[in-house]
Structures are given as structure tokens and as C-alpha cells.
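Bench log. Compound arrived from synthesis this morning; before running ITC I wanted a structural hypothesis for how iron/sulfur cluster sits in the protein. Inputs:
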Amino acid sequence: MGDAVHPRPAVISRADLPALVDAIRAQGYALLGPTVRDGTIQLGELGALEDLPIGWGDEQSPGSYRLHRRGHARLFGWAVGPGSWKQMLFPSRERMWSADRTDDGFVIRTDDTDAAQAARKVAFFGVRPCELAAIAVQDRVFVHGAVPDRSYSARRERALVVAVDCGEPSGTCFCVSMGTGPSTGPGYDLALTELDDERGHRFLARGGTDIGAQLVRGVPHRDADARDHAAADAVIASATARMGRQLDTTDLPALLERTLESPRWDDVAQRCLTCANCTLVCPTCFCSDWVEVADLSGDHVERWRRWASCFTLAFSTVHGGTVRASARSRYRQWLTHKLGTWWDQFGTSGCVGCGRCITWCPVGIDLTEEVRALRELDRPGAAP
Amino acid sequence: MTARRPTLAVWKFASCDGCQLSLLDCEDELLPLAGTVEIAHFLEASSAVVNGPYDLSLVEGSITVPSDIERISQVRAASRRLVTIGACATAGGIQALRNFADAPEMAAVVYARPDYVRTLSTSTPISAHVPVDLELRGCPVDKGQLLEVISAFLAERRPDIPSYSVCVECKQRGNVCVMVRDGVPCLGPVTHAGCGALCPAYARGCYGCFGPMDSANMPSLLATFRACGVGDDGIERMLHTYNAWAEPFRSALDDEVDSR
Ligand code: SF4
Ligand code: SF4
Ligand code: SF4
Ligand code: SF4
């Protein structure tokens, strides 16, 4: 994929959007995208455009998620659900290799079904801006690290990204604070803005790569005019004004570094279940356990990778015991890594402001609230 | 493989046999198992009994009658490794509800001639009586975990039995959280993993079959249950099941009431 700039945004009508999907399929991509399943908007294989959450919206708040019908037929009138593209690139459970005993030793196999899966060309259709930013964060870990991860890199290389600006943020979104949304940042092949006004239901389309630009050229479209751009700007401005949450990021790593002994950590530890949900739904969390399994004969072994979490005791268990035994130390580890030390490690924030950890925490712990409280207590003269 | 096959024994105390049946349910794996270990004592599967010592003893059931106490120390003495299987052996089981009540009074209600019944006033886990090498959770145990324990034993490695919450498995499986989506109380956040988040996969809250996880925060979860509209009775019903006697399930409700 080239990095050429494709400055001529086009407009594709709602009626012509299926042609875009057909064009993507014609290039050999399997289509993955959002769809309503189990009462939430989740990611999965899409049969047709009609599988998108058309007319659906979501209400999200700390520890709560509800779907509802909106009074329109927009395709993208919702914010992110419980799943993220992480599950496509870094599956929750993956066999890394297996080995079999032979007469004179053993053989290792890496040519599993997983490799075949990884070789599939897939189109991520309907990636929200915060998710695009999250993919870039994980790319830094899995692709641009000292040792690139084989299976993640293989999947990532074959993924076509069709991003969609956000018009309907949820009650837990704060991408504006994190600088990741609600308009799409860099890294897409194709970006869309859904417009639905007196000029009709249509999509402003911008190619970010040659492939993306080609796709647009291949479907019926017209050049975007000033009014289309103004309409798109209005969508973004309205979403920006309706963020559910805010996080003041001023000097955040430094704030966290000097508040390590804040009483707020004890407060959150009383509420935190150390259940790990926040880390597992987080689109940037990348930690994994590597586990060996053997059958009863001991002649066949497999090495699996599965999602891990710094909220578990096992995560910091070394010879002699667990380093982070208290809930306080585990919550603190998570928050200070996500918002602070991630910068030292990878040069970015580990949080993109998607709000999942807030919505999907069973007891509704809200990191923006925690940071606000840490800041309050840190103010000169604040009561301890 | 060593020349002598390790010997496996399966013992039963007060229980429903469900966990032993989980072992029998491992049809595909049992045949190779029979080739790898010598099943020396397993009344559920065969009537031949071999005297100890045993390399690995799997113990099902809790201690509920005086003779159990004697028998479990014999089993322990005859076993190199002793693994409890299931909620009864690990936590006292559903029969430990008697621990919260007056056992003789209960016997009088249930039996026509309670004087024929010789029973302890409590149902207690095996670990209350003898040292245990590993406690396998669940009501019943998960057959995959059971095979993992046996495989690990044969390879002399540590078994992969994570003690974190059911939520971890729930998310790995791709379930949608019933607490967040439906406001349904779920014991998953305080419950030990092992079932693969079975109930949430069918849109139900976790019942806590695998007992408490390694760092369960009961007060916080119970406060959220109350916010979902669950009262004292409901909370007591949720906690008073197969692992009722296991801390911190055992005193969670009392602690919470005390602290109010
Ligand atoms: S955080 Fe921003 S980009 Fe992400 S879903 Fe919400 S509005 Fe969209
Ligand atoms: S920390 Fe929370 S809000 Fe930030 S990216 Fe992760 S899940 Fe989203
Ligand atoms: S912050 Fe919430 S989701 Fe995360 S471990 Fe604590 S209770 Fe679980
Ligand atoms: S459904 Fe239950 S087990 Fe699953 S994530 Fe929610 S609280 Fe945890």
C-alpha cells in the first residue's frame, strides 16, 4: 500500500454503497464489520450491508450498555461495543505451535489452521476513529517492536481498513480528550463520513491509500462540494460537543508519577473487583500468557497464547510469591501504565478514549473520574 | 515413560458422584489414560481394588460422618499426591449448608428415625483434615481441567489451572457481560475460573460453582447487586450454594451487614 495522498474526496450515495462492498469483495477480501448480536453491536463476518446495525443506537454509562432504535436509518449511528478489532488481529486464544514426539526426537509444526486464517485477506469495515488509533498503538507493540509478532503482522498486513467518522458518541466516549476522534486520523485505506440531511443519505469518502482511492473510483460517485464538506464538519463538531466523558491530559504522566501514594488508590481498590474486564475489553491492552499443554501420552504438545491481564495475581507471580498482591497495586499498575509509562515505553498514550473499560466494568469504575480525583487531591492545599 | 505405570486411585466421600462421572465422561481420553496409568482404585469404573500406595489420589466428597475422618487419613497416608476434585471435597459442598444451621434439628426433619443417623454436625472440605496437594474446583469439575491435572501430574509439571475470575474466560470466549447489558447479578467477578464462563454464554449470571477466585472483593460486588435490586434474601440464596462454606463467600453477607 502506497502512502500517496488522494486529495479529491468523493460522495457515494446510500443507494450506491452496496457497490462499494461488492468492489471490496471483488478484490478478494472477506468482509468483517459491526452487526447486532446478543443485544450489543459486535464485530463479525458481514453477509451484506444490511447486516450493519442500521437504525440502532447505544446508551452507555459506567457499568451499563443498552441498545435502542433510533428514529432514522443511519448505518453508523452508534459508538463502539464490547468487542474491538483487537480480537481479529490478536485473538483471545491462539495456538502458536505444536510438537510431536518421533522415534528419534520431535517435530515442531507451525503450519496450523491459524496460519491459514492469518493468510486471509480481510476488510475491516466500519472502524471507528478511536479504534484506528488503537490499532496503531498495538502495531507499535506487535509490528514495530524489536521482534515483530509473526501472526499479528501477517493478519495486519492483509487487513484493509475502512474507517467511519463518529456522529453519535456514547456516554463513555472521550476521544476528543485523547486526540483520536471523532474524525478519523491517519492509517486508513478508506474513510467515510455518513451524511444524512436535506441533500440525501450519502457518504463522504476519502481514500488514504491507492487501494482505497481505487475502490472509490470503481463505484458510482461524484466529487464532493463545499456543502458536503460543511455537512461533514458539522457532524464532527456536533459529536465533539457531545462527548460523554472528558479527561484532562495536562502533564498526565507526571501527575501519575507523583501521586503513587495518593489515598485515591485505596479508595478505588475498595471498589475494584480485580476481575480484569477493563483490560480485556481495552483495544490497546496487549499482554498474553503463554501456556504449554500436553496430551496424556506426553507425545503431543501445544503452545497457546491467550489474553492475560495485570489485574490477575498470576500476572506478577514470580518465584517466591506475587509482586502485586493488593488490588491497590494492580489498579495503580494498570492506570499508570495506560496513561503514564506507556509514553516512555512506546511514545504514545496507551489510552485512546474509547470508553470500553468504563462501560464494561461490572461496578462502573471510570478512569476519567479516577484521574480527576487524583488531580484534585494533588492540588496544593487539598485535604489528604 | 517409566517402566512402572503410575497408579491412580479415585475415592469418594459425601458427594453425588458427579465429579467421578466427569472422569468417566472423558471417553476419548480414558483409553489412553488406562494405558498410561494403572487405575488401581475406582469403584465407579471397576470393582477390582488394589491396595496402596498410590501415586495419585483423586478425592471426591466432603467429610460428614465420623468414619470419614479416619478414612481420609488412611487415603492420605497411602497417596503420594492427593488432589481433591469438586466443590464438596474442596469446600464442603451443598451439604455444608448444615454448617449454618442446627444439624440434629435438620436430621429430625428429614429422617423418620434420626437416631439411626450417625453424622457430624458439619460438612467440611478434605483440606480441613489432611494436607492436600491441589484442589480442583467446580460442581462438577470441568473434564478438561481434570485431564490437565492428570497430564501435568504425569509430566511432573505445574497444571494450568488459573485462579483468576470467570470474567477472564467470559471475555476470552466473547460473551457479552450480563451485568452490564441486562443488569443481571453475576458472581463471575468473584468466582474462580474453570467452567469457561458457561452460564454467561447462555445469558445467565454465574452461580459460583467454582468457588471464590484468588482475590474476591465481595463487598463491592454485593453493593452492585443491591443496586441491581437484589435484597438480603437474594444475596443469601446466591451465596448459599455449592461453595457456601468457602471464604470469603461464607461470611460475605455477615460482613456486609456488619459494616452497614
Ligand atoms: S470514542 Fe470517539 S471515535 Fe470512539 S466510538 Fe466514541 S466517538 Fe467514536
Ligand atoms: S483504557 Fe479504557 S478508554 Fe482507554 S483505550 Fe482502554 S478501554 Fe478504551
Ligand atoms: S476496574 Fe472494573 S473492570 Fe477493571 S478490574 Fe476493577 S472492577 Fe474489574
Ligand atoms: S457476565 Fe459475569 S462472568 Fe461474564 S464478564 Fe460479566 S460479570 Fe464477568
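What the model suggests: The two ends of chain A are 54 Å apart (CA to CA). The pocket of iron/sulfur cluster (ligand 1) is lined by residues A 79-80, 128-130, 166, 169-170, 173, 175, 181-182, 239, 353-355 (CB under 6 Å).
ITC booked for Thursday regardless.
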